[in-house]
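Dear colleague,

Thank you for sharing your sequence with our group. We've completed the structure prediction you requested, and as agreed, I am returning the results in plain text so they can be pasted directly into your records. Please verify that the sequence below matches your submission; if there's any discrepancy, let me know and we will rerun it promptly.
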Amino acid sequence: MKELAAGSLVRHRTLGRGKVVAVEPAALHVFFPDSDTRYAAKLRWPAAGAFLSQDGLEPDPWLSGLTSFAKDSASGRWALDANFMSQDEAVALFLSENPGGFQAPAPGKRGAPRVGRGARWRAASEAWASSMGEGRSARLLEDGEYEELGARALRVALLAGEIPGMPEPDVLEEAFAPGDATGDFLDALLGYLSVPSPARARFERLCAATHALGAPSDAAWALVTFFPFVAVPTRQVVLLPRSACPGASRLGCELQYQAVPNWVTYTRYRDLSSRLLEKLAPHGARDHVDVECFVHTTGTRRASRPAKGAGTPARREGSTAAPARGAGARSRRKG
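Please find the predicted structure tokens below.
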């Protein structure tokens, strides 16, 4: 067996497949998902090597993506967040509340708020397609019609403005007022959307252009990710920190979140969303609109605590705290 490191997948002779969480001189901490506990097992090292193998292990995207571990200083044990919920648990609970999966429930049925959220995303996506799609935005950009482009972008964003975590209408109106910063943002956005799989350089250019809009800091992630998301919901994701962070944490994914949009957090969330879309597709999920609704529901759900001493993790409502507001400067295009 090759040298083990944090993140390595292994198979234990009796405990099954697991993921190495931490390696110490005399101990190996391994999380075994079949053990029905959020705690990683602390195995004596190197003696435990006789029970472990990496032969014949197939890739496990879910287990590899499980990264939200923290060490308890009192016990010396590593564990997932106290409100951890496996993907299977989250899906089962979602389906128990929404028997139709991702089909719209009848009016008044439980789950209507989730459908309302998805309907708003889809309305914005349809508005983007009709006003900016099929080369319309590229032609306006080429003709220097920044004011018209900005007005269209604002109309699209306002359709999703009632979704918690999206910027307030006055923030959006200020961000898309005619000016140099607005033109630079639209140029960076359309450059980002011009290729099927944008690389880091295009994403970071979009982040810089968003910062120059001067919107409050808690609107940054929404402004960076909203427009690509509604333009191509089959490939792009929207990251609203107030729902994405607690949702990802509850599902065991550490986003390494920072208030300033960055490539590491973005790719971690995009990878999680892609895995969830594959998991949810058999239940009717079509794209990342449905995934976003699922993550939001999972992260903001109230869950009862298990009996004291139970092996499954205690669960609590995910935090929805958002970064503090702050303002930045922006330059305007005259006339």
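Summary note from our side: Confidence is low (pLDDT under 50) at residues 106-115, 304-335.

Kind regards,
the structure core
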